[in-house]
Every structure is written in structure tokens, then in C-alpha cells.
Write a structure and sequence with these properties.
The complex is a heterodimer of chains A (418) and B (167).
Chain A: H1 10-42, H2 58-67, H3 79-95, E1 103-107, E2 114-117, H4 125-146, H5 150-181, H6 186-195, H7 204-217, H8 229-232, H9 242-267, H10 288-310, H11 316-346, H12 352-371, H13 413-417
Helix pairs in contact in A: 1-9, 1-10, 3-4, 3-9, 4-5, 5-6, 5-7, 5-11, 7-9, 7-11, 9-10
Chain B: H1 3-24, H2 28-48, H3 52-76, H4 92-114, H5 129-139, H6 141-162
The chains are: A mainly alpha (418), B mainly alpha (167).
């Protein structure tokens, strides 16, 4: 961790805070446009292409339009809480970026001041990110409750239950990174990946679990149950309009970028150039790393959009079952494996061939387990579906053959009609 | 008196006042929200005491999960949440007695353990993860394990309570 953190001039801190804010807002505007264009391309449409080059200014126009809409306070809303909730949702989203490293130490143009491209850092930086994002849940719970509408309340409860559940899996998947890097500070984790390799490779299971958890955490498709239109209208922000709605929207998009940036920092080497470019002199110095960082982050954003464009929404109980019964036990087991491996590697009791052999045996064992036939309970013979149960024509249940394809009722009509 | 002392006193005051509002507030949701303020102020105290890890864990677990679950329970059940909802139980005198006894006991323990201890402000020892891990899993491992058994018992108890209707 650089000595400069916490000992910088006040104007440097203000400048960096302002830059982080501007970057996030612009990134949000860009992402809305990016998502619309990419999804449009995936659906053989054109997408917004009128305002500005390639339609880039579309989100700006939409933002202005949103700001000019009428502010509505529902009759049954709890006024104070209703007003504060979007603010509570948005502020933590910005706060999380205080410890995200954009690049190495650089000189500020036109001055001699050297500063790291990161607002600040602390020994428990990643824990800090998890903590402030968990504060954002309050915005959603309170917004849903204070609206005084059933749809909002149910959406808020769903959304926060989902965020709390997937936060556990997310935190657990990051534990392996802490063990590997020996630190919770973001800049030190990036430095550890420079010495070692990108943690996505040795910690592949953690990386996969993190990627699933981050989609669940941000309430994005295919895990966007909180705003399942068919069931809940719009979720917790059903009753919100104008700028208050815009704040919720902003928070959601910033959270998406936050988890992407965290994934980049934790697993993909942070601001360090990818292999190949990294060998070029000066690729990891000066302002170039910002480019690599934003590129990798954008890769994750694209992943989000790709998922949204291709996967249908999960059912709520399946989703919760997946989080609690698959992701969390899997990450716990993986943490134990990582602890043992790490200890053995540090003590030099382990050579890579042994790891490969053990891994190979495990994979083969897993495959064999897949092929052991399960003992099936004898299938109960399903009763013949009655196409006229209760006197009305009913379609057959899934997997059943429709009766009497000729269209004639099976039962004599006299018995049915009487 | 340094700036740290002033901020520490202010945080302590916020924690005390909001804790008082938790127990006196008329609506149960307001009580829960004041509890958030109390826990946040306590997290601030931890930061001032250079216990970074404990502070953020406090925010993550207590503010981010425990109170949110509490709010869930209030919103999803048919608990009355209007005015007067926080004072419907008649257990207030009993609660006062229990809280008073706990305060006296905890205070006595603190006094007996750390009474007269002077903390040198110049020699700040930051409460990092390594230091905390050392303290919990080396020095205080027995109390830690006993506590985890208590938590396990609470967990089992909750499951038993929720499944009671099925038999």
C-alpha cells in the first residue's frame, strides 16, 4: 500500500473525488446507451441512433426528459422515508468507488505532484466495499415500504432478500482471493496479481461463483425477479417518478459497474495490462492502465448485457435454492481446499505435478459419480388424464398425451350434460 | 482535548440519544430505524479507536443484514406498524430490569478488567485482520467457541419454533 494514501494535499483529494464522480455518471450514461445498442443488435433491431454520433446522446436526452416529469407523492406514502430512500440507495453506490484502483502512481499534468490513481486505500478496503453496498439495501427496503403499495413492498422485500443472500456467496468467493493475496487492500491485491498470475486462473471456482453472485447482487437478468413485470409491475420503484426514479436507476447502473470493477480488481489483474501488452515497456505506467482497467470493466458490463439478451428469468424459489444450497456450500468447500493448498505451497510440500494428479483424480471421480445410476423410485402409474374433468374441456398436463385426438368427448355426452 | 476526543464524544452522544429513541419511540419501524443510527454511531466509535476491521464488519453484519431482516419481519407479518405499535407489550418494566442488570454487570466487568488502564494515544495499534485473528483464535479461543455454540443453539431453536405447527 502506497505511503501517499491519507497524506495527500486537500486539492488532490477533492480533484480525485470529483473525477470518480464524473467517471461514474458518464459511465452510467454510456452503459445505458451501450446496453440498448447491444441488446438491439442481439434482437435484430437498430437501437437508439439519432441523437449524437451513433445515438450516444440518447441517454442524456432521456435523463433530461426524466427530470422534467411530474414528481408524485402517493397518498399512502410515508413522506420522509419515501423521499430519503432514493438518496440512501445512491450515495453508497458512489462511496464504494473510493477504494477502486484505476492505475498506478502518476504525476498530475502541469504539476509535480505524484498521486496514485485511487481515491484512498485501507487495509480492509474490500470489506469496506461490501459494507457500503450492503447499506444500499436500505434504500430499496425503505423505498418499497414507504411507497404504501403492495407491489412496491413485495418488490422491495424480494430485492433485498436477494441482495442479502447473494452477498453471502459473493463475500465467500472473495475470501479465497484474500487468502491468496494475503491482504484485503485493493491496491495490494493488484500488486499480488502482478507477482503471481491473474487470480481468475488459480481461483477459477471462486471467479465463477463471484460472477454468478454479482449478477444476483445487482438484480440483473436472469436474476431480475424484483422487477418481474408480469408479477410485480415495476418492483420497489413502481410508485417512483421523475428524479427520484432516476436516482434509483443511477444506483442500479453504478452498482453494476462497481461489481464489474471489483471483479476486474480481484480476479483480472486490476489496472495491469493483459498478457502480451504487458511485455511492452511502459504499458503499466502513466495513464495507460486506466485504459486497460476500463476495458476489462466494460468486458464485464458486456457480459451483463449478453446475459440479459439471452437468458429467461428464473423462478424465485429456484433462484433462492440455487444461492443457498449450491453457491454457498460450494464456496465454503472451495475455501477449505484453497486454505490447504496455500499452506502446502507456502511450506513447499507440494509440487505442481502432484496438484495436477490430485485434480485429475478428483475430476475423474466426479465424472464416475455422474454415471452411477440413481436408484429410482418406481414410477407411479399416472391416471389417464380426463379431458373433461369437472365437465369442462381441460388441456393435458405437461408430458401427458391428449386424449381422444378425434375431438370427440370420451365420456358419453348424456352422462356429462344430463 | 484533541479533535479525536471531540468526535468520539459526539459519536457517543449520537449513539446514546438514538438508543434512547429506540426504546421510547412510538412506532416500531421508527424504533428499528433509530437502531440503525445507533449501530452506525458505534461503528464510527470503532473507526476512531483504530479498529477498522471490527467497524466495517459491524456495518456489514449489523446494519446491512440484521436490521434489514428485522425490518422484513415487521413488514411481512401482520404486526401493527402504526402509532402506538411499539408499546403494545406489557413487558416494559421487565425489560428495564433486565437491561439495567446487564448494564451493571457489563460495566462491572469492564471496570474490573480495564479500570485505570491508560491508552497511549501516540502509539496507535491498528486493529487489522491479522491482529484480530490472533486475539480470537489464540488468546480468546474458548469464549469464542462457547459463543458459537450459543449461536448454534439459537439457530436450532429458531428452526424448532418455526416447524412446531407441522406435528
Amino acid at each position: 500500500m502506497s505511503e501517499l494514501f491519507g497524506n495527500e494535499a486537500w486539492w488532490v483529494i477533492i480533484l480525485k473525488a470529483l473525477l470518480v464522480f464524473v467517471v461514474l455518471v458518464v459511465f452510467t450514461l454510456f452503459n445505458i446507451w451501450f446496453e440498448r445498442r447491444v441488446v438491439a443488435r442481439m434482437q435484430h433491431r437498430v437501437g437508439p441512433n439519432v441523437w449524437g454520433p451513433f445515438g450516444l446522446l440518447q441517454s442524456l436526452a432521456d435523463g433530461v426528459k426524466l427530470a422534467l416529469k411530474e414528481e408524485i407523492f402517493p397518498k399512502h406514502a410515508h413522506k420522509v422515508v419515501y423521499f430519503i430512500a432514493p438518496v440512501i440507495a445512491t450515495i453508497p453506490a458512489f462511496l464504494a468507488w473510493a477504494v477502486i484502483p484505476f492505475g498506478p502512481e502518476v504525476t498530475i499534468p502541469f504539476t509535480d505532484t505524484v498521486t496514485p490513481l485511487q481515491l484512498t486505500d485501507m487495509p480492509v478496503a474490500v470489506l469496506y466495499i461490501l459494507a457500503v453496498t450492503s447499506i444500499g439495501v436500505y434504500g430499496i427496503v425503505l423505498g418499497g415500504w414507504a411507497s404504501g403499495s403492495t407491489y412496491s413492498l413485495l418488490g422491495g422485500v424480494r430485492s433485498s432478500a436477494q441482495m442479502i443472500s447473494y452477498e453471502v456467496a459473493m463475500g465467500l468467493s472473495l475470501v479465497a482471493v484474500f487468502i491468496y493475496a494475503g491482504s484485503m487492500s485493493t491496491s495490494e491485491i493488484v500488486a499480488a496479481q502482478a507477482e503471481d498470475t491473474w487470480f481468475a486462473l488459480p481461483l477459477l471456482p471462486s471467479f465463477i461463483i463471484y460472477m454468478i453472485a454479482m449478477v444476483g447482487e445487482t438484480n440483473r437478468a436472469p436474476f431480475d425477479l424484483p422487477e418481474a413485470e408480469g408479477e410485480l409491475v415495476g418492483g420497489f420503484h413502481t410508485e417512483y417518478s421523475s428524479l427520484k426514479f432516476a436516482l434509483f436507476f443511477l444506483a442500479e447502473y453504478i452498482n453494476m459497474v462497481t461489481v464489474s470493477a471489483l471483479a476486474t480488481t480481484m480476479f483480472l489483474g486490476g489496472w495491469r495490462a493483459p498478457w502480451g501488452i504487458s511485455q511492452i515497456d511502459g504499458a503499466n505506467e502513466g495513464y495507460w492502465p486506466v485504459l486497460w482497467f476500463l476495458g476489462k470493466t466494460l468486458l464485464f458490463v458486456f457480459l451483463f448485457i449478453w446475459l440479459r439478451g439471452s437468458l429467461p428469468r428464473l423462478r424465485y424459489d429456484q433462484f433462492m435454492k440455487f444461492g443457498w444450497k449450491v453457491l454457498i456450500p460450494a464456496s465454503l468447500a472451495w475455501i477449505v481446499v484453497v486454505c490447504v493448498m496455500r499452506r502446502l505451497i507456502i511450506d513447499d510440500d507440494l509440487d505442481p505435478t502432484k496438484i495436477l494428479v490430485v485434480a485429475g483424480v478428483l475430476v475423474v471421480a466426479l465424472l464416475v459419480v455422474q454415471f452411477i445410476p440413481e436408484r429410482r423410485t418406481p414410477a407411479v402409474e399416472a391416471p389417464e388424464p380426463d379431458a373433461f374433468a369437472g365437465g369442462f374441456p381441460v388441456p393435458p398436463m405437461p408430458g401427458k398425451q391428449p386424449v381422444a385426438p378425434s375431438g370427440a368427448p370420451v365420456a358419453p355426452s348424456g352422462e356429462k350434460e344430463a | 482535548m484533541t479533535a479525536v476526543t471531540v468526535v468520539f464524544a459526539a459519536m457517543g452522544l449520537v449513539a446514546l440519544v438514538s438508543a434512547f429513541l429506540v426504546v421510547t419511540s412510538d412506532q416500531i419501524i421508527h424504533a428499528a430505524l433509530w437502531l440503525v443510527v445507533t449501530l452506525g454511531a458505534v461503528a464510527g466509535l470503532y473507526v476512531l479507536l483504530a479498529a477498522e476491521l471490527v467497524a466495517w464488519v459491524q456495518v456489514l453484519i449489523y446494519m446491512g443484514s440484521v436490521v434489514v431482516l428485522l425490518l422484513f419481519a415487521l413488514m411481512l407479518t401482520r404486526t401493527p406498524t402504526g402509532p402506538g405499535s411499539a408499546t403494545v407489550t406489557r413487558n416494559q418494566p421487565l425489560a428495564t430490569v433486565v437491561a439495567g442488570a446487564t448494564t451493571v454487570a457489563l460495566g462491572a466487568v469492564m471496570w474490573a478488567g480495564f479500570g485505570g488502564e491508560v491508552i497511549d494515544e501516540d502509539e496507535v495499534r491498528v486493529g487489522t485482520a491479522a491482529r484480530l485473528g490472533d486475539a480470537i483464535f489464540r488468546t480468546w479461543v474458548l469464549p469464542f467457541e462457547v459463543l458459537s455454540v450459543v449461536l448454534l443453539a439459537a439457530l436450532v431453536g429458531a428452526i424448532v419454533l418455526t416447524r412446531r405447527g407441522e406435528r
